[in-house]
Amino acid sequence: MKRLEGKAALVTGAARGIGLEIAAAFAAEGAAVAVADLSLEESAAAAAEIAAKTGARAIGLGLDVTKEADCERALAETEKAFGKVDILVNNAGITKDNLVLRMKETDFDAVISVNLKGAFLMAKAASKLMLKARAGRIINISSVVGQSGQAGQANYSASKAGLIGLTKSLAREFAPRQVLVNAVAPGFIRTRMTDGLKDEAKAKISEMIPLGRMGEPGEVAKAALFLAGDDSAYITGQVLAVNGGLYM
Ligand code: NAP
User: Residue 87 belongs to a domain with what CATH number?
Assistant: First the structure.
């Protein structure tokens, strides 16, 4: 029996990178998945690929997580397609790195808006269905720098630390209705977000990581899969680090 057989999931920022791996891993375990990202075209293409590879049902949605109406529509469309929404993964995220002295207010606001407010809006929209169903999983993709801090990423690390506070508050608020809320905190993972780093920087980062290498998107997807399935039924309000030992 597949681990997510009969479940329906919505993953934000899922046209590429970690989100795409999570959606594909859920589908491979039998879940119907809504692939939601800024570009409807790219979401639809990713959903079609997932469906072809896994045989699971998959739909693509255009979604800007900073817009409340978009978030509500994405949940409504997923419910319409699959009859319910069991799992929400708040994965959409952006960076706009700079030293604080040079960081523009607009770059601070943009990162908080996508990474933190977006997760709040999606969780709020999903909670209407999940609290009624008295079941559900919300998984927020935070980051190691939300735990450790990072020079040049004040906006990003603040958003990811905020996401951990949001996770714990939602976990407490939703626990009486059996809606479980957890976070995954990846370390340095090989995606477009880290592709821009110079080889020298990548080598330095790998030296700092006890396991000696950057992580793969699929390794983050496995943690999300654990938090989405029955094996984590007694776990809520937690942060699961997937960072090769970078931060303990
Ligand atoms: P990615 O390859 O850049 O993917 C992020 C996706 O989110 C993109 O498809 C992007 O769309 C989408 N997105 C951006 N703004 C959005 C919005 N307003 N509404 C909906 N979707 C939006 O990044 P990734 O590395 O896979 O990261 C996924 C998550 O993991 C992020 O939350 C990131 O902070 C977190 N994370 C990553 C790492 C890492 O090392 N890679 C480490 C720790 C945490 P567009 O491409 O159209 O902009």
Answer: 3.40.50.720
Residue 197: pLDDT band by 50, 70, 90 thresholds?
confident
With a cut of 90, say whether residue 196 has pLDDT above it.
no
Amino acid at 96: K
Domain contains 69: yes
Q: What angle do CA 150, 152, 156 make, to 5 degrees?
A: 70
Residue 136 region by backbone torsions, left for phi larger than 0, else alpha for psi between -120 and 50, else beta: left
Whether 199 maps to a domain, the answer reads: no
Would 205 be classed as within a structural domain?
A: no
113 lines ligand 1 (CB under 6 A): no
Most informative mutation of 21, 91, 208 for ligand 1 (most atoms within 8 A of CB): 91
pLDDT in tens, 222-245: 999 999 999 999 999 999 999 999
